[in-house]
Amino acid sequence: MKYPIVEKINDSIQGLEELERKLDVKDLQKVKEILLEFPTVYIHSWKDTDDYDVYIGETNNIIQRTRQHFGSTGMKEKWNDSLSKNNANLYIIGHEHFNKSLTLDIENRLMLYLMSSEHVRKIHNLRGNPQRKYYPDFEMDSIFQRIWKKLRRDNKELFPQESVIKDSAVFKASPLHRLTGEQEQIKDKIIDRVFNALDTEMENQLIFIEGEAGTGKTVLNSSTFYDIYSYAEEKGDKSLQCCLIVNHDEQIRVYKQIALKLGLEDKYGEIIWKPTRFINHHTSEAPIDVAFIDEAHLLLTQGKQAYKGRNQLQDIMCRAKVTVVMFDENQILTTEQYWEFEKLEYFRALSKKQGNYFVLTKQLRIKASEEIIDWIDCLTKKQEIHPIPKEKGGYEIKIFDDPFQLEKAIKEKTKNDDHKLSRMIATYDWSYNPKPVAKKRLLKYWEVIIGKWHKPWNYELEKDLDKNTKRKNKSLAWAEQPQTIDEIGSTFTIQGFDLNYAGVILGPSVKYRKGKIVFDPAESCNRKAVQNRTLSDGSRQKFGEILLRHEVRILMTRGVEGIYIYACDPELQEALARADA
Q1: Beta-sheet pairing, 516-519 with 510-513
Q2: Model pTM?
Q3: GIY-YIG domain spans which residues (predicted)?
């Protein structure tokens, strides 16, 4: 039997009894054996509002396990209303190759997918248990795909297309991913050090993890954060105070979705914070247990508006017994975030002294050959353009002569379900002010304008959407919203996120002179990158060229499957065309 069996029944004792009677016929003895005597995976689903609640599990005895669920007070409380409305279902999944390890992996993958489904309100599981090597782990992907297709035939709303799931920002930041060996080792050490510090009442502990764009910092962060809560819950410790902090509106939105779907905010209250708000609402006299900081390079290193301090990392550390930091020096974008060498080295040295310094090295985002990754590194770090390697490892790089053709190519990609998350992004070289201003714009939107071609900046088109569409988009990252195919994303919007294909527009601030890429702050509209920064010694310096280089690196590392490039500077465009010859 090559294909999985998926049986859907009414989620009740009566539904279970009907299944037993159905299978008790001669022609279904093989099916009966696989469903009732082999290990199985099951999904409880119920729908009280517009969205679903789900519970996923695996068992060696589905009849006994389901009866246990119905006998559980907690389960009764969750499902009684749904059962009375007759809208709760139980999916029982079997396969003749199922064993304990394979069913655990299927269970974990279903949790990962259903948490990322737009119409799932909440997952009631505690945490997953992804497996390592086992027989037959090589069948896992193909068996799961067949299971998902069968589930999807029954309910396309609850079980959307795999490509839609994989493109969602919630999926990409989910704590339920199977980690790489490198990530797993670091996670185990972080958890060990966190609980050791809390058990021995050590304070001012800093765990510092560095990694370039695409090395899996966000997944490591969310997975470790969730596991610490899960371990505490398993031990019956309800007093743990653990917060996740990120200075990025798009990421805040994603993390809040994850916290809601996993029920963390129901149990622990507000746990997702922006740094200034966290600092203003907590004190050093009553520090929380653990503060996780994703995208810590976005923290402020000087005061501004609501933040009156001098260094947000230092202020957060004063308000947490243990601080876990994910950091990439090459993604700092503004002078407000700029780190003086001595100060950054102080924090690195502190974490090293405590035995808490780790580095992620494996590139996980870009599905390309090492030669292509080196080519991108040379362009964005060394500011050199080398010939584009012929061996790309399936990755696609194209140089376009004009933005019209680049837009057409990106839109063509989105017609394929596997590439729907393809968007255009650009350096911040055209005016944009999201706040109401007295001076009227010449055009309806703030736009990227190149000759006769023009497109609105990110979040401009949402002004014209109806209320229902705006409400639907509220939980979606920028690139997931349908109208954004006609917009241009900035570094501030796309930082920390993936695209299938990135259509990168290198604006006038990126030039090519005397065999090198140079950055011209005078052509940039990113005031926060080109303005003076007052340093600790009182001197005022400019860091525009460094920060604009970081801007380009962020844009050039967004594409998972490829990057399409157009450059406004004629000499840069010519150099890129030669490299592609």
Answers
A1: antiparallel
A2: 0.92
A3: 37-121
Q: Would 167 be classed as within a structural domain?
A: no
Residue 185: other Cβ atoms inside 10 A: 12
CA dihedral sign of residues 538, 540, 546, 551: positive
The residues near 506 (Cβ < 8 Å, ≥ 6 apart) are 426, 427, 552, 555, 565, 566, 567, 568, 569, 572
Please enumerate in sequence order all residues whose Cβ is within 8 A of that of 195, keeping only pairs 6 or more positions apart, or say none.
228, 231
**Phi, psi (rounded to 5 degrees) for 304:** -165, 140
pLDDT tens digits, 36-84: 999 999 999 998 778 999 999 999 999 888 887 776 655 545 555 555 4
pLDDT of residue 516: 98
464 pLDDT higher than 60: yes
Element (H, E) at 397: strand 396-399
Q: Do 219 and 254 belong to one domain?
A: yes
Greatest CA separation for the chain:
87
Domain boundary among 108, 127, 160: 160
Contact 274/247 with Cβ under 8 angstroms? yes
DSSP code per residue over 199-260: HTT--SEEEEEEE-TTSSHHHHHHHHHHHHHHHHHHTT-----EEEE-S-HHHHHHHHHHHH
Q: Starting from the edge strand earliest in sequence, which strands make up the sheet with 488-489, in order?
A: 396-399, 559-567, 499-506, 423-426, 488-489
DSSP state of 408: H
Q: Which domain holds residue 548?
A: 370-579
Q: From CA 465, how far away is CA 314, in angstroms rounded? A: 42
| Overall domain count for the chain | 3
| Tokens (6 digits) for 277 | 């708000």
Nearest alpha carbon to residue 497 among 114, 217, 121? 217
- Count the Cβ atoms, other than its own, within 10 Å of residue 127: 17
Beta bridge partners of 57: 42
Q: 402 with 343, same domain?
A: no
In this structure, of 55-69, 169-183, 205-219, the range with the lowest mean pLDDT score is 55-69
- What CATH number has the domain bearing residue 82? 3.40.1440.10
Q: Which amino acid is at 266?
A: D
- pLDDT tens track for 437-454: 545 556 789 999 999 999
* Residues forming a β-bridge with 541: 533
